[in-house]
Design goal:
The protein has 81 residues and is mostly helical. Helices cover 72% and strands 0% of the residues. The protein has one domain. It is built from 4 helices and no strands.
Length: 81
């Protein structure tokens, strides 16, 4: 889930959609335990790399959305684009 939504506390609410029956507190506890112990997981580098790549995609998508929103505002306000 971290590769899809990120690993910030702000993203934990989004996890609930993919984890019915869990609470934000349970997701927070899992996240804390995972990051404390992830090196014990076989092939942990593969999972961490996927999370990092997903977070990069989240940031890229946010930048694209902000640029689109800015252009939309310029058009609405009659500014030269």
């Amino acid at each position: 889930m971290a590769e899809t939504f990120g690993r910030t506390p702000e993203s934990w609410q989004l996890y609930l959609e993919g984890m019915p029956g869990k609470t934000v507190e349970q997701i927070e506890e899992y996240s804390k335990r995972f990051w404390k112990n992830y090196e014990k997981i076989e092939n942990h580098k593969k999972y961490v790399d996927r999370i990092i790549k997903g977070e990069q995609e989240i940031r890229r998508q946010k930048m694209v959305n902000e640029a689109i929103e800015q252009k939309h505002k310029q058009i609405i306000n009659g500014e030269t684009v």
